[in-house]
Amino acid sequence: MKxxxxxxxxxxxxxxxxxDLVKFMGKKYVPINRHSIWYYFGGVSLFxxxxxxxxxxxxxxxxxxxxxxxxxSIQFIMSKVQFGWLIRSIHSWAANLFIxxxxxxMFSVFFTKAYRSPREITWLTGMVMLLLAFGFGFSGYLxxxxxxxFFATRVGTDIVGILPVIGEPILVFLxxxxxxxxxxxxxxxxxxxxxxxxxxxxxxxxHLLLVQRQGMSEPIDAHHDTERKTMPFFPNFLLRDLxxxxxxxxxxxxxxxxxxxxxxxxADAFASAPAGIKPEWYxxxxxxxxxxxxxxxxxxxxxxxxVLLFGAAGVLWALVPFWDKKSSRGEQNRFVNYLGLFAxxxxxxxxxxxxxx
Amino acid sequence: MITPExxxxxxxxxxxxxxxxxxGGGIVAWLIAVCYPILxxxxxxxQSEVEVxxxxxxxxxxxxxxxxxxxxxxxxxxxxxxxxxGNLRAFSATCTHLACTVQYRKDFGVIxxxxxNGKYDLNxxxxxxxxxxxxDEYRVVVQGEEVFISQKS
Lengths: 357, 153
What we know:
A: Cytochrome Bc1 Complex, Chain C; globular; B: alpha+beta
């Protein structure tokens, strides 16, 4: 057996020079410092993404993306298909944990300033993936075609529609017409299972290649240490990574089994929006902020101003490696810390308020 | 590498400019030829709808006093309100804020939108919350036992 494996390795190596890659992996070291714990959240996000791909493909085996069949096909998955309830529950829960994990990952990179030169491209691809993750969440939310999803999509696409000039065409493009209909469902389905995964995979590949190529970033103050502590990537770091994945898998299993994801009532275009309707938790802070804005602020539509402000804040956030020159020079930049802290507190407080009200 | 021999063979500047323009223009034209059908494909076709001017909502006895019912008006929802003293009123049920469907709240005697807590009085006027405009009003006509809703001209 061993000789056979060695022969296979030799066969491939003689064609694609595998040895270089193996040497590279063998020489790879991961720095140890007081912020090392945050290194694992990228891996956890990757793990959850892999789970989403697998469970997503499994759901595709039974899901039917049409107005008349979508809700019923998920009912079928949850009640008739063996372990269907589990697969769907895992997909829903893992989606939420995925967003949570990439939030933690993103903020830890922000606070340790790991985005600084020369890792700008890694940061940018990550920010675009964060945006795509929101897209995944928003498009996937509609697919069960239930009451909550129907109105969430109506409101979400209506918000896009208030943007001047480009808003209306985007709204019509997203909804496949003026209203949220079966046409919208088809589009969201295609976007959710083909367009977004395709783009996401390309970005993820670049992101991971860069991490491998450049190695882990170290906190700015770590450079002052005379002796740098490291551990080999293979197998020490990888095994720790796998341990984290196992913990996450257990959390996921507990959530999926003991708190199965509900399906709710089928969407009806001629029913009133149900009381207590709310967007998913990761949109809550924006939703709550928009609620606080008055209808008009100095002749400008309050909602429009809110959307534009969030957009501008997002762009500034994504461009942090380019305006935070201090960190790239290896100096402390307290302003970035305060800004990050403000963002974290803002998001947490408004999410809690949005949750309670 | 440009050697003297090569330069001698190179096309004259005028000819080269023409070729550049020809090639560049060709690429642009090709891009348009590819992108235009894709964009046009993504634009949903306008479907002709039967224009509805009036619908029969149902029998008067079906609408209790102090209640609201969503009625199909073509492909738009309309809310038919029967007030506590028996008056019938109809408004577009699409909230003027972000297009959720409104409902009648008995406890407050208002038209309410669950999405962002918008409220309208029983004349359709936006009285609290984010809605920027009143709800469009429809005409209600009772003929015998039947209730009809029609568009206000």
